[in-house]
Amino acid sequence: xxxxxxxxxxxxLFAAIALGLTxxxxxxxxxxxxxxxxxxEFTMGSEGKALDEDAAERPVHTVSLPAVLIDKTEVTAxxxxxxxxxxxxxxxxxxxxxxxxxxHLPVELVGGQWRPTAGKEQFPMVDVTWYGAxxxxxxxxxxxxxxxxxxxxxxxxxxxxxxxxxDMDYAKLRFGQDSIxxxxxxxxxxxxxxxxxxxxxxxxxxxxxxxxxPYVATDGREDPNSTERRVARGGSWTGEPHIAxxxxxxxPEPTFAHAYLGFRCAKSPE
Length: 270
Ligand SMILES: [Ca+2]
Description:
Layout: H1 3-29, E1 34-37, E2 40-44, E3 61-65, E4 68-71, H2 77-87, E5 107-110, E6 113-116, H3 130-139, H4 147-155, E7 203-209, E8 230-233, E9 261-263, E10 266-267
Parallel strand pairs: 7-9
Antiparallel strand pairs: 1-4, 2-3, 4-10, 5-6, 7-8
This protein binds calcium ion.
């Protein structure tokens, strides 16, 4: 091998290493699990007049929000099992339970350790109360999105009724009996910002207390200590199709849990 050939090979080797390091750095700067929702105004609510609309969605109004980062997908059973194993409890400081009935959970306690049920690792964590969702979010260094943040992430700024547009398309959401599945499995159903499963799969808890519109973040509806009903969004694998819109406001008690109710997290940009 000549000196020239060795030199060329070394150059190629250094270039390959540099390329690999660059790829790693780019990956670290752009986490793929969070989506940036830019600051600005969006249209919230609906006319609440059509058969598939609810009076609680009235009136249509403009809301201005700061930028927020929101999870691209619902929190998974595998992620939630890790949380339970690290915090080593299933209630918060006030004694509020994190979980619902064991038979509805996609996680199980075996030998003192939580693990996702076989085959459910990437399914949404469901059967979790508002306290259980909030506890996970805090542990993860995040928080629950407000229902306004959730709605903007789902519908963008053009007032769309579904994440993908104006009309229902059953190929774009997990909806209907036994259709719950791995999170993020239907890219065609993405919101304008790229959030997945915002219609269907699991309902998603938000931080917001259920109060009449207009949405005003400072009127008590974002009080973390309130015990009033909290808003969940997006519809799920079970239920009526008219509630899988970007505007419908499900409002269970914060201690409610069911096999169709999960969550995703958010955080404010640093
Ligand atoms: Ca969902």
